[in-house]
């Protein structure tokens, strides 16, 4: 687990302890909303192997550098703290090394989520919230460049889950500023290659964590 992932996990545990001690949400106006968000993302290491024509195979732990993410959703607040949302998330992470060998590339995903949220009473100006999501993987893609050529590997389908922890500040009666931590998890599965002579093995796992800021508009 990378240092950035550990830091996000520690922040999560501390924040959950605080949020569980908060009173339940007061009544709020029910209605539809849209949201957009983006920020940095970190990806935990995973084991994989790669073989391709005219190059030595590589295998071992894959490590990743900086990442980015963005997303948006449309949802409905029920007026009692609960909300449901359909969302789309994109994340991309730089690939740095595989088994100690320096490589160039990236590991990215697009996922459609059904999220549920619960918002608590405000603490000062901030209204904390927690959420969870069940998603369908529209694509997970890895591009891996070495020996002067780039290979693309991808998979589609399967389920993803995520946990969400954050807070919002009202800017007006309709606009809110949001910030949240999101942890996503998918099971390891086989990837297909765009080149019949190349193969990605090890069923690499995709488990990113992201820190986002965004805006929400209530109709």
Offer a concise description of the structure.
By secondary structure, the protein is mainly beta.
Describe the structure.
This protein has 219 residues and is mainly beta. It has one domain (3-218): Porin, CATH 2.40.160.20. The protein contains one helix and twelve strands, in the order H-E-E-E-E-E-E-E-E-E-E-E-E. It has one helix at residues 3-20; strands at residues 31-43, 46-52, 55-77, 82-98, 101-119, 126-146, 149-155, 159-170, 175-186, 192-193, 199-201, 208-218. An eight-stranded antiparallel barrel has the order 1-3-4-5-6-8-9-12. Strand 3 and strand 4 form a beta hairpin. It is elongated. Residues 11-17 have low confidence and may be disordered.
Question: What keywords describe this structure?
Answer:
single chain; 219 residues; mainly beta; Porin; 8-stranded antiparallel barrel; 8% helix
- Intertermini distance: 41 Å
On the 0 to 100 scale, the average pLDDT is: 88
| Tally of individual domains | 1
Estimated share of beta-strand residues: over 45%
CATH classification class: Mainly Beta
How many distinct helices? 1
Query: How would the global form be characterised?
Result: elongated
Q: Strand sequence of the main sheet, in spatial order?
A: 1-3-4-5-6-8-9-12
Number of strands: 12
User: Which ranges are low-confidence, i.e. pLDDT below 50, for 5 or more consecutive residues?
Assistant: 11-17
Q: Oligomeric status of the shown chains? A: single chain
* Topology order in helix (H) and strand (E) letters: HEEEEEEEEEEEE
Secondary-structure class: mainly beta
Helical residues, percent: under 10%
Biggest β-sheet description? 8 strands, antiparallel, barrel
